Amino acid sequence: MSLWGGRFSEPSAAEFKQFNDSLAFDYVLAPFDLQASQAWAQALHAAQLLTADENQQLQTALQDLVKAVAKDPQLPLQTDAEDIHSWVEAELINRIGSTAKKLHTGRSRNDLVATDLRLFCKQFAQQLVSTNLVLIQALLTFAEQYSDALLPGYTHLQRAQPIVAGHWAMAYVQMLQRDVSRLKDGLKRMDVCPLGSGALAGTTAPIDRSALAQELGFRQANENSLDGVSDRDFALDLLNTASIGMIHLSRLAEDAIFYCSGESGCFSMSDKISSGSSLMPQKKNPDLFELLRGKAGRVIGHQVALQTTLKGLPLAYNKDMQEDKEGLFAALHTYLQCLQMCTFAIPHVRVNVAHAELQAALGYSNATELADYLVSKGVPFRDAHHLTGSAVQLAQQQGIALEQLSVEQFKTVSDLIDDDVYPILDIRYGLNQRRALGGTAPSAVRLAIKHASDWLHAAEAASKHVRQARLSDVDKICELIAYWAEQGENLPRSKADIMQAIQTFAIAELNDEIVGCAALYVYSTGLAEIRSLGLFPIAQGKGLGAELVAFLLWKARELGITRTIVLTRVPEFFGKLNFRLTVKEKLPEKVMKDCEICPKKHACDEIALEYLL
Q1: Which of 13, 208, 221, 457 has a CA between 20 and 30 Å from the CA of residue 587?
Q2: Which CA distances in Å does 414 have to 22, 383, 411, 588?
Q3: Distance CA 547, CA 515 (A)
Q4: Dist. CA 467–CA 458, nearest whole Å
């Protein structure tokens, strides 16, 4: 039975039903439709539109369906229901009879599908964040392994200047970090619950929509019912991020294909990620990377398709919006698969170090160093650029490298060039000079790896158990601090103090329960301190303390802080997190603020450590 048949005297034509029905693809929303239905039944009960017994019947039947779908995700496909909402209602009626027909009171498929899709997108976006982080770790491992391995760098696909392979990998780490940032930004915007918007004008049921949103794990309920049922910006956000992410993977793939080519030969692929030719026995093809490159077009196409579908739609819901799902589902699964395959591939790529160094030296890639040498002799850069070009032309005419020109030949270009030019023309000289932030010098690359590793640890913490504290967390934070103050490990803090400083706190959760906290206090000099760090005993030994510290160090870097301290009785814990010992005399801000009120100030047993960001 359809959800809308009462108005009609004839059944739908089979041809129309096949064209109209969406169960074939929206069945994947079953877990989210059931979740939304459980929350809606509870809201109806709270609004006295369901009795306690009716609510219990619905909750039991819905939970049974949750288990059945978890066991067999394709279970809905065994019926001819129009869509996933029709399937859920039909299954409930089969199980508990007429009580099931009360579940749809005050709601519409319009607000229900919008809610289902948001729940799906929230879950998938979190999975994409985690998968990006795993790929970032693979690239960081590659960068560490090849932090000083030379590689020819290119502009316009012409040899330009030498770089190190670690610098190449770190460029893609930066791109993926931005992808993670975009996903997190999108998660904030999609964290709004449309359930209770009805078909377009809201619901007549006296539902507490804010409580309903909280029950479903949303930050808040939407504030306009027309927008609630017709908004698909959150899907466009995800498709946009997926498209940009696939562009990044495609560019990485193109680089890998080129560096693995016979013309370059700087990279080699293992047999595990290569294929051969059906005709030419000698071939070893980079099919994995070519597929990464090729699938980018598919994801971008799905983004354009949804944009085109939405661009002319009037408010509120229109059947056109059924077209939001197939492309979205396909694009997100493609992006996820490509991230996973790229992560698998990176450890199977190696740099042919000796050959790559020879390649990096070709193409007069040390010409800029000669120009800088002339600048150091007082020549204006524009003139030095011109003179260096003449030297390159001279070397090309003789078929030799720039550094193979004699002093006499150099002097035909400029009398200022002498024997001291040759060390500067060494390929590693210029490389090591590029040690400013963001440069390709091995020392700069190692610093970039450290920064990215810190960021990764914080991002992993935030994607698992740690988040910024909210006002609703104050009581639990007070409980944690009071517990450790009684143990003599923390200074006591009043509720008013914690409430005023709530923006400085992060909290750790296990099974949706707050089990730990820590704060980042910033002094007037720009020094920051991690304090009030504590976990309930039941949460210790699970890595949550390290996650809290990583999260706060990331927050410190975001604020532009360069030095963070701790005073602790467990220095070995912070030592494992790369804090190093310092002396308290370097911490006047801390001494002035807290030490005077500390009951142990005359017999202090805390150790001072610092972390340089």
Answers
A1: 457
A2: 76, 11, 5, 57
A3: 12
A4: 10
Q: What is the mean pLDDT of residues 208-236?
A: 96
Estimate to the nearest angstrom the gap between the alpha carbon of 152 and the chain centroid: 30
Return d(Cα 141, Cα 348) in angstroms, integer: 12
Q: What is the mean pLDDT of residues 255-273?
A: 95
Beta-strand relationship, 563-568 and 528-535:
parallel
User: Between the CA atoms of 579, 584, 589 and 591, what dihedral angle is there, to the nearest 10 degrees?
Assistant: 130
Place of tokens 């949706």: 512
CA atoms within 13 A on the CB side of 354: 0
Cβ-proximal residues to 540 (8 Å cutoff; 6+ apart), any chain: none
CA distances from 279 to 200, 285, 522 (A): 61, 13, 67
CA-closest candidate to residue 316, choices 189, 192, 199, 202: 199
pLDDT for 102-134, tens place per residue? 999 999 999 999 999 999 999 999 999 999 999
- State how far the Cα of 515 lies from the Cα of 291, in Å rounded to an integer: 44
Entry field: residues in the chain: 613
C-alpha span between 190 and 412 (Å, rounded)? 67
H or E element: which one contains 154?
strand 150-155
Contact yes or no for 508/516 (Cβ under 8 A): yes
Rounded distance, CA 139 to CA 449, Å?
10
- Residues 584, 591 contacting (CB under 8 angstroms): yes
**Selection from 562, 570, 569 nearest residue 610 by Cα:** 562
Confidence band, pLDDT 50/70/90 cuts, at residue 14:
confident
Q: Is the peptide bond before 316 cis (omega within 30 degrees of 0)?
A: yes
Q: What's the mean per-residue pLDDT of the chain? A: 93
Which residues have a catalytic role annotated?
156, 277
Give one DSSP letter per residue of 553-593, joined into a string. Answer: HHHHHHTT--EEEEEES-HHHHHHTT-EE--GGG-HHHHHH
Query: Does residue 143 carry a pLDDT above 80?
Result: yes
Q: For residue range 52-101, list pLDDT tens digits in order.
A: 999 999 999 999 999 999 999 999 999 999 999 999 999 999 999 999 99
Quote the DSSP letter at residue 198.
T
* Nearest Cα residue to 168 out of 96, 83, 255: 255
Q: How far apart (Å, rounded) are the C-alpha atoms in residues 24 and 83?
A: 8
Spell out the residues 6+ positions from residue 70 whose beta carbon is closer than 8 angstroms to its own.
Answer: 31
Name residues whose C-beta falls within 8 Å of residue 445's C-beta, 6 or more positions apart in sequence.
Answer: 143, 147, 148, 164, 166, 167, 170
Is residue 408 very low, low, confident or very high in pLDDT (cuts 50, 70, 90)? very high
Alpha-carbon span 381 to 375, nearest angstrom:
6
Confidence check: pLDDT of 274 > 60:
yes
